[in-house]
Design a protein that fits this description.
Blueprint: E1 2-5, H1 12-30, E2 37-40, H2 55-58, E3 69-72, H3 82-94, E4 98-101, H4 112-145, E5 158-164, E6 171-177, H5 181-194, H6 199-208, H7 214-225, H8 242-249, E7 259-260, E8 263-264, E9 266-267, E10 270-271, H9 281-294, E11 310-312, E12 318-328, E13 334-344, E14 358-360, H10 361-376, E15 380-387, H11 393-411, H12 418-439, E16 446-455, H13 456-462, H14 466-475, E17 478-484, E18 489-495, H15 501-509, H16 518-537, E19 540-541, E20 548-550
Parallel strand pairs: 1-2, 3-4, 11-17
Antiparallel strand pairs: 5-6, 7-8, 9-10, 12-13, 13-14, 15-16, 17-18, 19-20
Length: 570
Amino acid sequence: MKVRRISRDTEQSSALAAQDEALSDAAAKARYEVVGDVEDSCVSGAVNLDKRPSLGEWLREPLLATWDALMFTTQDRITRDDLHWWGFVAFLQSNKKNVIVLDDPGLDLTTPNGRVIAGFKAAQAANYRNDVITKKHKQLEHYRAHDFWPGGQWPFGYRAERLIDEKEGKPRFRLIQDPVTAPLVREAYDRMVNKGWRLNQIARDWNKRGIDTPRNHQIRTNLALGREGVSTKVNPRLKWQHTMLKAILTRPTIMGLSIQDGKVRQRNGLPVQWAKPIVSKSEFDKLQAVIATNGFDKLPETANPMTGLVYCWCGEPMHSSTARNKRRLKDGAIREHTYYYMRCRSIARNNPCEHRTTWPLGFITQRLEAVFLEQLENVEIEEKTFIPGKDHTDEIANLRQGIDNLAQHLVDLPPGGTAANSILTTMREYEAQLVQLEAEPLVADRWEVTGTGLTFGQRWAADHRWDSRFDLLHKLGIRLYLGGDRSGPMNHFISAYGEGYVEHATNIAAGKAEFTPLQSFDDLATDMHRKFAEEWARPLIDTQTGKVVASGNRAMLPPLKPYSAYPWPA
């Protein structure tokens, strides 16, 4: 069986092809029957053979019985770990298998001397790998000391730019903001913090727009720049997931900070700034609060968009359902009609509540539209332009933290020493910067507001798509309660923003709205509706006669029409 391996996918076009050609020629000349061709791409020589994605399954039953020998081009393609090598030899011996190495035709594992010679070569390969690891560690320390990019996956929002190290005259790389992905990070921030979007929604939108995932974007960029020695294979199956997006937006790297072992690196008591920040410290903190509180959709992508908007008078949420009715016409034809409705969750629990438990969807959309237009029909939509201020709060906090960190190191050093003097010099520099920044005035961020001449009623009428209407109603924190019966239906409208409902609507339209606090709204809405329902159920007494003129369940709305009168809007 032919076995090929490379440690990096950058070798795919050459090393794997060369190995395949050599193995095929050798098998043909020796007239071997090839029962399999195993390829492990991007698999380190330090990975044990039985743990490799492709080769591993051939070392276990049932495939183990299908081959007699493994053929490699060189011994270091087998493994670069001497302990793994001896385990592999023992495996071959116990299973009566053999190994063929093209560059060592005299390899013989059946004799003690042959195994010793092969073991010596395995030790050489292991030593070589250890030397490479040591060299890479030293190189990594050098890169970190000079803020060079060591290689690997770019932090999303940044890319590696080639430069020449002035001291060594060698090519190196530094991180800079990527003109494609940095605006995407800002877009995600703006959508989540200012427009009420959630991670799931952004991921779905980016997939719909065909935006590359971080790995695929880096590959395409490297291909466009003609860089050598880098990955060149785009994976079209990679799609944005909310977990991937969350990992990007919760890492301090979007502030341009250097990360080591999951923590922000420090130098002279200050965070190491690797590149220009995409978001500021205050923006980053605000984003983390949004993600922690409201970062995920409660509803799956396939959920009815009305779910979470409509509740039964008893307090249970309503869910959508359908019913089909077939009727035979006079001419013998059969007409089938589908009725769309929402019903109280108490039905699914086999304990229906006292109120009418099913409502036509068309009737519900009429009520939602009426509630929306009653509040906002004549309210003008405003445009708000963000004018950034001037605030050095984050820089001042970093400098103070840096001075504190250096002061802690100073305690452990002998006074007057070189290290202590160096720390004192740095602290004086920080103090001078601190005085300068604290002297500058604080200018707050502000919004400039201008009218558009367009009202919410006009916008509602212009957009007939109920999906987008439902999305707007969700962002407004609307909850509609329905109760009563067919002859006297009742409704009760609640907004998560209470008296600030209209102002919040204008902020959403202008692209300046804090996220909808749905989680904290659940208990509040339940309590608000309970108090309203209790007040509504009290008897209405004539103050002059003292007689009861109306009792509970007084009708708020006209009697319900037949279901066919409420078609489900397209």
